[in-house]
């Protein structure tokens, strides 16, 4: 019976002129949380493809039975770092392109890139589950990935979302790959105090691009088009933390000079404005919890000098700022990262956000410097990956799906 019904379902590209209402209805049905428990709901602000439209290539498919939309899936494609190799030719294209020809280039690790696809937003109407529709949507999306040259496909889900993990690992041929952590910190009514011994510099997009390519382009999942990310209108900015006494005459001389004469410790991160893409809302909270949260905000707002932690207004639609590209060097890098996170908190407060979030590798060295509330955070996300073809872009990496995880990972804000 299920196979007969599946044959009646047509999978096609999303048509924004007629599919908007049907897609929103499926999203609403899929976000019915368990009775008596807190659930997180997402408002896409009337734009069903908002979470992929900033990627270099993207597609949304819908499953239609008769005139009813019963499922959907989104996917995007980009080129990212999947490993590194040692450059033995000082006159390689990378060195020439970014003017980094120095004595260290003979042994400088350079990135190995691959074309990777990302699946997100798979939704199946409750009335059409357990009939193979999810598998059908994934397979058709993978066909588009292959047609556009993607070598790998990956997806992310909560580690305790057993149905999703089972679908991808048991039926779609994916392997469990990485387990990063999602860290969420509330935005309080009071401002976070900045350390007087640390200077925070807002980098221009060209300076930020140079810094990232010179220091972090061998980080796993680093996007080759990082310049497009940094120049996007949703990018709030890139911020660098350095010791106050490290700046000559208190002036910033640019990333090129900074990288040739770096201080002992420094940290960097970029900020993405998710508030203008989607809004979140926590539902299912009791009246007691709502009252407690409201009381903490009232007290925090009335007595900001006490700097008391307050529960943000998450029981109505709220926005967030996402921190990405986190990195740094030196023994005080984690402390400087904490200062940067405080700066982002203050920006998010001014921008009307409820929380600040980031996603980092489980063994990220700077993790200890990222403030977060455990009750709001996901200690382990699950990324699963699949190799789509037999060939590899560069043989120095081999099969990426079998590689060991590095200390850090670059989470693309366009896909969060």
Automatic annotation (TrEMBL):
InterPro entries: Acyl_CoA_acyltransferase, GNAT_dom, Plant_NAT. It comes from the Eukaryota. Residues 9-199 form the N-acetyltransferase domain. Gene3D superfamilies: 3.40.630.30. GO terms for molecular function: acyltransferase activity, transferring groups other than amino-acyl groups. The keyword Transferase applies. Keywords: Acyltransferase, Transferase. Belongs to the acetyltransferase family. This is N-acetyltransferase domain-containing protein. It comes from Salix dunnii.
């Amino acid at each position: 019976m299920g196979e007969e019904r599946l044959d009646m379902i047509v999978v096609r590209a999303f048509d924004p002129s007629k599919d908007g209402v049907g897609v929103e209805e499926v999203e609403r049905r899929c976000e019915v949380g368990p009775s008596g428990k807190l659930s997180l709901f997402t408002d896409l602000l009337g734009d069903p493809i908002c979470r992929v439209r900033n990627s270099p290539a993207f597609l949304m498919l819908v499953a239609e039975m008769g005139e009813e939309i019963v499922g959907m899936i989104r996917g995007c494609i980009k080129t990212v770092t999947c490993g590194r190799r040692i450059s033995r030719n000082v006159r390689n294209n990378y060195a020439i392109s970014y003017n980094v020809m120095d004595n260290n280039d003979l042994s400088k690790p350079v990135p190995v890139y691959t074309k990777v696809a990302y699946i997100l937003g798979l939704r199946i109407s409750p009335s059409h589950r357990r009939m193979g529709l999810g598998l059908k949507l994934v397979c058709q999306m993978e066909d588009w990935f292959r047609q556009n040259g993607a070598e790998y496909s990956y997806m992310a889900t909560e580690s305790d979302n057993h149905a999703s993990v089972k679908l991808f690992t048991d039926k779609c041929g994916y392997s469990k790959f990485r387990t990063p952590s999602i860290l969420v910190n509330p935005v309080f009514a009071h401002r976070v105090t900045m350390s007087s011994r640390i200077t925070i510099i807002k980098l221009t997009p060209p300076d930020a691009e140079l810094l990232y390519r010179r220091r972090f382009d061998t980080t796993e999942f680093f996007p080759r088009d990082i310049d497009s990310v940094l120049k996007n209108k949703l990018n709030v900015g890139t911020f660098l933390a350095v010791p106050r006494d490290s700046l000559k005459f208190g002036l910033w001389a640019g990333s090129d000079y900074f990288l040739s004469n770096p201080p002992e410790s420094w940290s960097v991160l970029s900020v993405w404005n998710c508030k203008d893409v989607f809004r979140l809302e926590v539902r299912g909270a009791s009246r007691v919890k709502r009252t407690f949260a409201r009381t903490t905000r009232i007290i925090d707002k009335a007595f900001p000098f006490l700097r008391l932690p307050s529960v943000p207004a998450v029981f109505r639609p709220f926005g967030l700022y996402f921190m990405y590209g986190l990195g740094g060097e030196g023994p005080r890098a984690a402390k400087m990262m904490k200062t940067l996170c405080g700066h982002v908190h203050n920006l998010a407060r001014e921008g009307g956000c409820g929380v600040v979030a980031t996603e980092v590798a489980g063994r990220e060295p700077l993790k200890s410097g990222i403030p977060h509330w455990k009750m709001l955070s996901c200690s382990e996300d699950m990324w699963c990956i699949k190799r789509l073809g037999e060939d590899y872009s560069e043989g120095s990496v081999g099969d990426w799906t079998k590689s060991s995880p590095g200390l850090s990972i670059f989470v693309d804000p366009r896909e969060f």
